[in-house]
Amino acid sequence: MTKHDLILLALDDSQNLHLMERALQAVDYEVAIAHDSEGLEKILDESTPALLLIAEQFSGKNGIEIAEAQLERFPTLPILLFAEKDTTGTIKSVLKAGLSGYLYPPLHTDDIVNSVNQSLARARHLGDWVRREVKRTTSSLEKRAQISESERDKLDAIIANIEDGVIVLDQEHKILFTNRIARETFGLPPDPIGRPILHVIQNPDLQAFLLRSTESSVKYHELNFDDGRIFNAQQTSIPHIGTAITLHDITYLKKLDQIKSEFVHTVSHDLRSPLTAVLGYAELVSRVGPLNEQQQEFLRRIQTIVQSITTLINDLLDLGRLEAGFDTRRESVQLESVLQYSLDMLGSLVTQKNLHLEKNIASDLPALRANPIRIRQMLDNLIGNAIKYTPSEGTIRISIRMEDRQLIFEISDTGPGIPLDEQSRIFEKFYRASNVLEGPKGTGLGLSIVKSIVENHQGRVWVESTLGQGSTFIVVLPAYER
Ligand code: ADP
Predict the structure, then answer these.
(1) What is the pLDDT of residues 230-256, one digit of tens each?
(2) Which residues line ligand 1 (CB under 6 A)?
């Protein structure tokens, strides 16, 4: 028994009320008496009774209902009911309402004290159990928190020692985290945290990658270093934080590629040499003696066929190299200068077909970071197609403009146009659309080469065309510098 616990009595029956009051006070409980339901509320609000003892009928109201309402407010408050009679109905109502127990007349001092003591003891046990559970749950949460602390250390150690470079940036491209490899790769100061990455790292490929990736969804980029190392940078956005850049050293893969490339080179040479010999001998035949017209015609056919086989081999080898990612040479390239070279070479064909050529080149265009040979090849193919497929007297329009740090090259013609359902296929290897099958010859490799070149330069190419009206090929390439 705990002394001085406050017991709240809510009874109208003054005789029993006094009996209870005396019995409880005799064993050192404090007693408060509520005379009506408002008084009951007041005492419950202002003091903290350890137990409520309420009559089945209290100040004209149902005591069980009052008790239930109080249990909603104070779920741990033990409540005893002073029932009018001991009936099964009473027991059921007490159990249903979740009360601690009940007393009924005739009252004996011992019964009152025992019931109150037992109810309080049960409530205390419950309280102890709740406290123990809270403690147990808290300590298990603490333990888990401690483990996930140590897990953080583990994670830090993994990221610090991983063989890939890791840089985490906030949304303004300021450095939030770097690991050892990333710092070594870029020769960063030991603590670059908080500094804008573009101020700290001067690698042009990385700068281009970061600038581009804010505008488009470019996720991968190759970074070339002056000492010959090549890294593949991958960008992943982290919600609410910024971006993570991982850097993977692919120098050894590039070396392997180079070996493969040398092999391809050798084979291409081996294939081309006999073809050159065939061409040479075909030319010599006419010098050894007079040929009749039919012989001359046959020789011309041999020459044309050998020429187209040579072109095919060259295209295939180019495509192989491009697809294998051998095209890593990058320098500052002015697109309009390369275009001029291309037009100089193809100009005679334009004149032959009496085509109208219109140029619209924006002034002050920024450079590309590109392989000039490939850019030339791309232009030759697109312009060559426009010339090839546009009937005499037609018009070819070429424009270069700048939009959102991207260079946009467009070439439109008044040729046959391309059927809508074939427009996505013309960039596939060997695919020739139904519109030209009767017309000029071709291998169907030109546009696959164009696509590979453009994509190797982190650009995009597509066609817009209406059958019978003409086609427009659009190439978008990232600008390098202003
Ligand atoms: P090729 O010209 O050798 O057939 P390409 O890969 O350059 O191969 O082109 C693929 C196909 O795309 C062509 O066969 C043709 O059907 C279509 N094509 C390309 N350029 C044009 C164009 N300017 N006008 C109409 N059709 C074109």
Answers:
(1) 999 988 888 888 889 999 999 988 888
(2) 381, 385-386, 389, 413, 415-416, 418, 426, 431-433, 435-436, 442-448, 471
* pLDDT tens per residue, range 439-460: 788 888 899 999 999 999 989 9
Ligand 1 centre distance from Cα of residue 375 (Å): 18
Task: Give Cα 125 distance to the centre of its chain.
Answer: 53
Global pTM value: 0.49
What DSSP string runs through 78-105?
Answer: -EEEE-SS--HHHHHHHHHHT-SEEE-S
Strands (E) across 353-452 are located at 356-361, 367-370, 395-403, 406-413
Integer Cα distance of 229 and 2 in angstroms: 81
Task: Provide the CA 73 distance to its chain's centre, in angstroms.
Answer: 49
SS3 167: strand
* C-alpha 149, offset from chain centre: 27
Residue 81 near residue 94, CB atoms below 8 Å = yes
**Of 26, 32, 72, 23, which Cα lies nearest the Cα of 52?**
32
Atom number of ligand 1 nearest to Cα 434: 16
462 CA distance to ligand 1 middle (Å): 12
Nearest CA to ligand 1 atom 16: 433
